[in-house]
Amino acid sequence: xxxxxxxxxxxxxxxxELFMPEVGGSASDAKRTCMACEVRRQCLDYxxxxxxxxxxxxxxxxxxLRRLIRARRAExxxx
Length: 79
Ligand code: SF4
What we know:
Layout: H1 28-35, H2 40-50, H3 62-78
The structure holds iron/sulfur cluster.
């Protein structure tokens, strides 16, 4: 999967620290930015495919992203 979509990423125009909150820190501002990002879908697909373990991707924080990665892997192995 390519990464050309990153050229249009809204997070490239904001504080990158927002997208890597400390454990227990708030990801709300990052998630709000993601909701307005035109490459949200590509970002989320990339994060799932890459198994990203840190940060906010495609509007999801780590708990939600881990659940989605597990679900997609389960779909793949049961297909
Ligand atoms: S969806 Fe969020 S993390 Fe992904 S590129 Fe857009 S702003 Fe960045």
